[in-house]
UniProtKB/TrEMBL annotation:
Keywords: DNA-binding. The keyword Transport does not apply. Residues 1-23 are annotated as: Disordered. This is Helix-turn-helix transcriptional regulator. PANTHER family: HTH-TYPE TRANSCRIPTIONAL REGULATOR, METHYLPHOSPHONATE SYNTHASE.
């Protein structure tokens, strides 16, 4: 009598992953913070832009996340809003952490701890 050899089974196709929202970009989170700070001060775009030494159009594009501003531009706007770069950067980081998946946030903290 012939031996019966079982055929290998093919695994079931993987279920489609639930699509995650993409993480916000730095420039988007920065823009949200700049707009929030400006609104908290009750200022018009033109007033803040004038003190920062840039056009209202450019500041508007920064706030909407359409520009990748240089560090000099970010510092100028921070100064016009009377916040330090550290305060502004910390607020942006907090915003990004709030929207990041937990796995990503833990991985970043772990990588940072290892580098320190």
């Amino acid at each position: 009598m012939a031996e019966i050899i079982p055929l290998p089974t093919t695994p079931a196709p993987a279920a489609p992953r639930a699509s995650r929202e993409p993480e916000p970009l730095w420039r988007d989170a920065l823009g949200e913070q700049l707009r929030r700070l400006r609104h908290d001060r009750g200022e018009r775009l033109a007033d803040t832009a004038e003190r920062a030494g840039l056009s209202p159009q450019y500041l508007s594009e920064m706030e909407r996340g359409l520009k990748e501003p240089s560090s000099e531009m970010i510092a100028a706007v921070a100064g016009a809003l009377e916040v330090t770069l550290i305060e502004l950067t910390a607020a942006v980081v907090d915003e990004l952490r709030a929207h990041a998946p937990e796995r990503t946030a833990v991985g970043v903290r772990a990588a940072y701890s290892l580098a320190a």
